[in-house]
Design brief:
The protein is mainly alpha-helical and 449 residues long. It is built from 18 helices and 9 strands. The strands form 4 sheets. The protein has a 3-stranded antiparallel β-sheet. A two-stranded antiparallel ribbon has the order 2-5. A hairpin with a 2-residue loop joins strand 3 and strand 4. The radius of gyration is 22 Å and the shape is globular.
Length: 449
């Protein structure tokens, strides 16, 4: 659906997909989110030292593993097992490397004079490749090995096969459930039958205008989009939130105190009036997405026949236009002192109503309009529940290893953005459509009371 340029076809698929994110669907998803979050916390807090603190955790990895398990569970009714075992921990890297690959190819097409430059620098400076439509059909096939590095191509094929098998199993389970009147084989009711995941809703949802549902091909394609778009972007926001909380102790203390005073037990952390009342939690999440926008660069739009005028400039048909959300989110006209993490900029107090209104009007981490993210409410639900349960359960601090990450980023800053790359209070991201990042490296300890 993301790449569908036919407006009527996109509108049809969007109307169907939106119903998979209804209030009922979100209520069903909440239990899956909490179940995965609590399991993640259990593994996160294992292997403690005599001091009670855990060993160092690279939260880039841990947030990736959680978010991919979450989307696997909410889409297929079965997680990828990234948190509990190492077998499928390659999946987050496969998804990111696929987007990097697009940038690498464009690097060689556009920056041929940089052939001798460090490859990582080339990758990080590249942008959208205009010929991706020619290569996309090869992803997940043996032909990808002719274009991608051998290891990446092999893992890409492995992921495509694994995700495809999960979808096939889920469709078979749903068909069996329908045949047996809601039960599995031999009258049993297994996990896939009990849960109403996104596939369940997409299979049983019809477009209210046409009465049609998604084809199996469209279902495969859109479930893949849910995994990709819903996993990496959530992981980025979680890891960035931990970075900014740990680099702003007063914010961390205030938010932790709010969560622990609002919820007497971890089981009481659920969607509802109490969680909604934690407006400082939402402010921290929004400020994180402003500072470290999960999709930093523009979503390209092609000017249609007749051309268009934008801000006094004429653009002919066929021109690709767009504005990067990261640029908007760091514009001092909308966000004064834009490189400072300040959740209070989102909270209305006497005298700042207009500045909050402007900040919210410019805020666009999920896109805008008919192409805006269909899973916005699910993303907020995940982020609220995961951060609340984490802060309720653990104290946390930066590990010494995080200094090495900062030095590594600082040492690699060879661009016109050197001043920004040298800042230790800014979470460093690199644009590959979704954002690449490193760290933070964190240690955890169970709260004392």
């Amino acid at each position: 659906m993301h790449s569908e340029i036919d407006k009527s076809k996109h509108a049809f698929r969007r109307r169907v997909l939106d119903q998979a994110f209804s209030e009922k669907a979100l209520a069903d998803a909440e239990g899956l989110i909490l179940e995965n979050a609590r399991r993640w916390l259990e593994y996160l807090g294992a292997d403690t030292l005599e001091s009670g603190w855990t060993r160092s955790r690279d939260m880039n990895d841990w947030c990736n593993w959680l978010s991919f398990d979450l989307m696997g569970d909410m889409t297929f009714g079965r997680d990828f097992g990234c948190v509990t075992k190492a077998e499928h921990r390659f999946i987050p890297d496969v998804v990111l490397n696929a987007t990097k690959f697009v940038y690498v190819v464009r690097s060689f097409l556009t920056f041929t004079s940089l052939a001798s430059t460090n490859l990582k620098l080339v990758i990080r400076q590249a942008g959208f490749w205009p010929f991706i439509s020619l290569v996309r059909p090869l992803f997940g096939t043996k032909w990808a090995s002719l274009l991608m590095p051998a290891g990446n191509a092999k893992e890409n094929v492995a992921y495509a096969k694994y995700a495809g098998s999960m979808m096939d199993d889920r469709l078979a389970a749903e068909a069996e459930k329908t045949t047996n009147g809601g039960e599995g084989a031999n009258g049993t009711t297994d996990q896939a039958h009990r849960r109403k995941d996104f596939v369940h809703y997409l299979l049983h949802t019809k477009d209210p205008e046409t009465g049609q549902g998604l084809s199996i091909h469209e279902l495969h394609a859109d479930s893949g989009l849910l995994i990709h778009a819903g996993s990496d972007t959530t992981a980025i926001t979680l890891s960035a939130a931990l970075f900014y909380l740990l680099h702003n102790p007063s914010v961390l203390s205030r938010l932790t105190g709010l969560i622990r005073s609002t919820f007497p037990r971890i089981e009481s952390i659920r969607s509802g009036p109490e969680l909604t009342s934690c407006n400082y939690l939402r402010a921290c999440i929004d400020e994180t997405m402003r500072m470290a926008t999960p999709v930093p660069s523009h979503l390209p739009r092609e000017v249609m026949a007749g051309g268009i005028e934008i801000d006094g400039h004429y653009f002919p048909a066929g021109t690709v236009v767009g504005v990067a959300p990261w640029t908007i989110h760091h514009n001092a006209q909308y966000y004064p002192d834009p490189f400072t993490f300040n959740p209070d900029r989102w909270i209305v107090t006497e005298g700042n109503e207009e500045s909050v209104r402007i900040a919210r009007a410019a805020f666009c981490p999920f896109g805008i309009g008919s192409r805006g993210c269909a899973g916005k409410r699910v993303a907020y639900l995940e982020l609220n529940l995961v951060l609340a349960t984490l802060l309720w359960t653990y104290d946390m601090k930066l590990a010494d290893a995080d200094v090495d990450v900062v030095k590594k980023v600082k040492g690699g800053a060879k661009s016109r953005h050197r001043d920004l790359r040298d800042r230790q209070d800014v979470y460093q991201i690199w644009d590959h459509f979704v954002a690449d990042r490193e760290g933070p490296i964190v240690r955890f300890k169970k709260r004392q009371n």
